[in-house]
């Protein structure tokens, strides 16, 4: 078993009683940063502040994206640079994405070594070939904002912590005259030869080093600057540029490998040398900036003007405690670990992306001043519009407004004049489909989020939804669907555009723009254009209006679809579930159809060439490890069978979220997987962000208090909840009977109490009348 | 004969009489931008404003620095991108160095074409293979701030003009539906595959395009941003990225070659398409910035807020007239062309290097705000400290102060804490030897230049002169010379450090710091440590104090020397010529020694492997085409034979400065060759900048008025000057007899009149007493 730094005190709960809640509880102890770090989760175990620009974490491999001229599949496992089962660490780098299915970053790898300087990382099998080190798992521990491990090759204890913009390393060395800090600018995640476009290292004085690197990765050109300072003067330093330099002017007047203070090139690895006494600590503060080395230095001075490692560790831990405390749950110790680790994972991405003075690199790569907002980046919107952004909008509204203002700044800077699709570090990577910044914005604004110019937001949404060049929108507008000739994944796109359009309608309605609302409600019905009544599934269609054949609803790679098969995607009409139910033959047939999804057997062939889907991630044909089905288990609410939703949600939470490194059944996807868990365990879920409602599922905590930013509390209580009592017998909202299958956003933010009375048997009479269904029509 | 745009009106001079002077004379008509554009001069013929950031000029070849894995010598001829005898033009690029012996730049090539889009430049022999075009020489004309040529392949007339930061193109097209503007970001001077580290093109709207490129050339990393605007909307556009892209994220959702508005890569060439009527003009304004595309756009809007090409052409011409008018000469028409073309060439480099808002990229690559000064770059100091900077300090003191403040900013930003050696575009290329920012600063400040913090300047000079890591300074301080083990060119270095140290002494003295002055006067005598009394030459010496053998005083590549042989370099003691004369056996022997220099025969073998020296550039063993001898002809002033200086100076001016494209006998070197001519034709020359004196030579104008910035005039008159009357009979300063062989800087800047009475026979009695010698001791 991995070690995480908390000791579950069962005594404590004996005293307080299960379900009781203590205000001063240390919630960070329930966070296990190792969950998701094995196999599919793609989370990282290292240190970061909530939404921090720095994610300082160990990398266990530096897998090359291109291996002998071919795509190296192995790199996928290392999206966060780390796999839990690895036995050696290559070093500690400062930037990591959390849970993505493609990756990048790993900027500025630092590694402490002892002995002869070695500029090569070595291999995972043979650490002696490079600066890499073996470690024993029992020495590795992590908590929010702190990570430690013992590097056995060097007998160095490594400790990491971080503020928003500064990574703080503390290395305890043995007595040696050959202690080194290696800084490898060639290291990267999803690395390849040629990724570094340019890099520099400037030794400003004997304790301060600055520099930058520009990389060409998933982020087309990513500018990362740094300022690094040591707690002790450098004795000596050196650098290797491991490239064949064709041309370097005529300036070779210095030995650039030895104590030359301004190194530049495409493949720099540097060493900084020290003599240490037994147990002497060398501390390294490493600040980032996307603007300049001057910006990094400002960040360094503003955030960590001292060398007190423990002070930073404590402050960051306190910040995590403050953030986690936004939801106080009473539940079993095991569930608290799942819950708070999920909450932790929801509070990592997006990340702040500006200097302390508000300067940041825009999408146009000019330096902008964030005026009245905090700029964020890493918008994995195809994933996160579903639950991660709605969660932040509910429990982190200030940040949510900042994120939306960041998206609007992106829109302003976009040469296309559209909102982000998948954006990071001043780049748009166009990953996946849809224009899902739109539902994020619409959901938040319809729900009354303050701090965003709503008219400007609507303008940006409209502009994004009508940019004909982007991914078939032109044809979508002409044909009412994205034809197969236009996009091989046109059916998925059409379904998602239809949903996105619904949210524009809701935003327009909220702004009193009825004509726009009407137009977009009409667009939101475009899903119907691809629904094949004969097969009962959504299918790809040609421009001529013909269904594309052959058609296999189970094939994820079938014509028309992406990251989901037609079986699952055909259920993607969150904006009009009742309409879909009718289309699928009424409530009974629909409910049976859903049942079959969760129970069917999927032949092996469907798992081939499918990185995202594993046997562990599915239930029958339901794929929890990928996003398009995240709302599906809630759909019984529209079919007179809400108890079946309760059953399935409980089952998913129990089997797909496990407290172990490989406990996530799919990529965490910047918090989306985690946000699903958080909502679901509270008893409701945003099936259709933008609707103003959350569909009720099945709570799995004893109690939860949402400490809202408006100062109010919304308390979720369960009565008789147990691992067997998973069905809702009745619900009371603020003491009054509540027979709806949904909760309104306004009821939550106004504060109050939601009481679920649970039972071991389903209440098949509750929530079966049409008027209890969530937003039953798409007015 | 080439065509330059001026018609010499002989009538005009018949009326005014030769030697008379009219205030409203158009001086720009005497500038022939083609002088120096053939063979060795390395000047460019295109359009620029005085000291302008933009040098918009035709490139006739895009020679690759590396050809089939080897250095391509041919590239040297194309240091300014142009050779006069070429018959085709590849396009018009926006940055050029003037007269350098190594080069770079050629940023942002624009070429108008008609017909099918071709992204390849084609070859100099076969223009039909690419976008390149043939032209007829008679259609090519140039004047300060304007260039025109007819591109025969496309029947397009090209016209160029420029402001400080904006290149303005005007292309007159035939009637066609296939008019194109090609923008080639792969083009460069001293180009090679891999030079472009990164580049982007953003089509902001149908008339505005922005972008940038980062290149790795002589400037180790050169950031150039642009904003380009068309007078007419683009019909269509496209782009090719001519590189094998290994990895580009997953974002290939667009056809990036066709109307895709945000192109990026390492090898971009774009086309912008128009339909044109017969004789329709497409105008392109192209602004630069080293800061950002936002900065380029600011520059564009501030400097050229309209599309009136002629207005810009006139304004820039007027600016040139204003600058050239700082020296009003009366002389033969032919000499005026030599003189004003030289003055023009002296007013091109250094160039302004900041945006209109004062932002610029510093040596640390951070963006700085120029506070209270205008930032300049392109400091070819090994060349220009000799006469170019002294000239600017005399007739452009405001700019001179700005340049010095720019050097001090460089010092502040330098991680080495030293002044520039050879700096350009936020980079130090370390080219050549010495710390010659020191004499530039000392000369100007000793001469009373205002606007520079003198204490800070002295600090920077001292720091530069004591940076032990730089080019043997450590050993220079230990041994009193740079030993041969330390540097293969240690003798040249020692001589130049000795001189530089003299100037520090002068600056310290001026600031009342006598201890420092004394120390540096001592250092300035270090030349003696390498003077071999036995051979009578300066020689390389080992650490053990042994002369390095074999020794051939005529060999430019001999041990110890660079860009000059021992014969010439042994005369490089400008700070103590009298001392050198003594060392060389007294005045008579010294004078004979000089005589032999000008008359000796140099065997062919000494010209091998010597790009800089040609038979045309030398007189006997005297090499005017390279800088180390530029003071030599003036040295008779210290040997009782000033009339021999007069003779030689006259001879050099007459034979080494010709009004034809190949009329420069060596690289103009950012104005140094030209500044030599200007001073010499006025009758004096800064043999030893920092001494406060100019050695008298032989004037070759009828009259010259220096219109000084302090509002005063210094008038140089000659009496009886003719092509035969080249000897000075007598001199009067402000009406009083002046029997010195020098003029004091203070006498010039105080205003007044210097009258040279000339004769066909030398006055062998004038200037022969020791007290007439310039600064005869180095106290």
UniProtKB/TrEMBL annotation, chains A, B:
<dbReference type="InterPro" id="IPR008928">
    <property type="entry name" value="6-hairpin_glycosidase_sf"/>
</dbReference>
<keyword id="KW-0732">Signal</keyword>
<dbReference type="InterPro" id="IPR005887">
    <property type="entry name" value="GH92_a_mannosidase_put"/>
</dbReference>
<keyword id="KW-0106">Calcium</keyword>
<protein>
    <submittedName>
        <fullName>Putative alpha-1,2-mannosidase</fullName>
    </submittedName>
</protein>
<dbReference type="GO" id="GO:0006516">
    <property type="term" value="P:glycoprotein catabolic process"/>
</dbReference>
<dbReference type="Pfam" id="PF17678">
    <property type="entry name" value="Glyco_hydro_92N"/>
</dbReference>
<dbReference type="GO" id="GO:0000224">
    <property type="term" value="F:peptide-N4-(N-acetyl-beta-glucosaminyl)asparagine amidase activity"/>
</dbReference>
<dbReference type="GO" id="GO:0005975">
    <property type="term" value="P:carbohydrate metabolic process"/>
</dbReference>
<dbReference type="GO" id="GO:0030246">
    <property type="term" value="F:carbohydrate binding"/>
</dbReference>
<dbReference type="Pfam" id="PF07971">
    <property type="entry name" value="Glyco_hydro_92"/>
</dbReference>
<dbReference type="InterPro" id="IPR014718">
    <property type="entry name" value="GH-type_carb-bd"/>
</dbReference>
<dbReference type="InterPro" id="IPR041371">
    <property type="entry name" value="GH92_N"/>
</dbReference>
<feature type="domain" description="Glycosyl hydrolase family 92 N-terminal">
    <location>
        <begin position="30"/>
        <end position="289"/>
    </location>
</feature>
<comment type="subunit">
    <text>Monomer.</text>
</comment>
<dbReference type="InterPro" id="IPR050883">
    <property type="entry name" value="PNGase"/>
</dbReference>
<feature type="signal peptide">
    <location>
        <begin position="1"/>
        <end position="22"/>
    </location>
</feature>
<dbReference type="GO" id="GO:0005829">
    <property type="term" value="C:cytosol"/>
</dbReference>
<feature type="domain" description="Glycosyl hydrolase family 92">
    <location>
        <begin position="296"/>
        <end position="759"/>
    </location>
</feature>
<dbReference type="InterPro" id="IPR012939">
    <property type="entry name" value="Glyco_hydro_92"/>
</dbReference>
